[in-house]
Amino acid sequence: MAVAVTSDSGKIGIIAGGGQFPLLFIEAARAAGRQVYVVAHRSETDQVVAEAADRSCWVKLGQLGKIISFFREHGVQETVFLGTITKTRIFRDVLPDLKGLTLWNKIDSRQDDAILRAVAAELEREQITVLESTLFLKHLLFPKGVLTRKKPNHGQRRDIEFGWRHARAIGELDIGQCVVVRDCSVMAVEAIEGTDATILRGGALAKEQAVVVKLRKPGQDFRFDLPATGVGTIDTMRQVQAAVLAVEAGQSLLFDRDRMIAAADAAGIIVVGVEERPDGSLDY
């Protein structure tokens, strides 16, 4: 659901994880005339992201009170969640402050969406509105259609449809966003380890010709944790001789499109953006 920009202060906050998304957002926000205030996570966020901001502060995972204090100090009333957090860190690197610990103890489920929704709700109770992560960057949404020179054959289309149903099912359970299949058999299901590890595990079992299907979770909030792919995804697939990457069009992010497609073509990997019609059939 779209969230309208409500502030006229010209300031916007970023709660930043790893990857290039925060830096791309800073550039786009500046072009839109916004001042950018970054909360950077230690061991996750690139130093260049913090340096590119008008102001920044570094936090450890769980320091919610510090985030709120930083935004209050600088009059920031809007923020976005951008970038990746290594999910396994919740078992070893969390150092919550009192605010973070209080919230953590209230969360019944430690799944992605439950945690992020709880943090967003707490921010909004503090009059800090959480906006869509694609604000200023709609052009990064994955397009529909075959992006590479090669197209999926009949068997690969069957695998995409098979994988789509299973990826949708694990998404409904808030387990993950990606499955790896071959010959209508599930090779791997994404959980806390992330997409790249899932591709390596599933691709090793498939031996070759694996089909990777990555979808947005049903009802997923556009404010955070959208599926994302890029050159790194293709590099991982190449290591296990995977054949096809099928991604939900308009519901996920595509970084470095030209480089990604060139890498896929060089590796003979098919990349396709897929839409689900109202009747459940797939269109690409």
From TrEMBL:
- Pfam families tied to this protein: LpxI_C, LpxI_N
> The LpxI C-terminal domain covers which part of the protein?
143-272
- Describe the location of the LpxI N-terminal domain by residue ranges: 11-140
Q: What is this protein called?
A: LpxI family protein
Q: What organism does the UniProt record list as the source?
A: Desulfofustis limnaeus
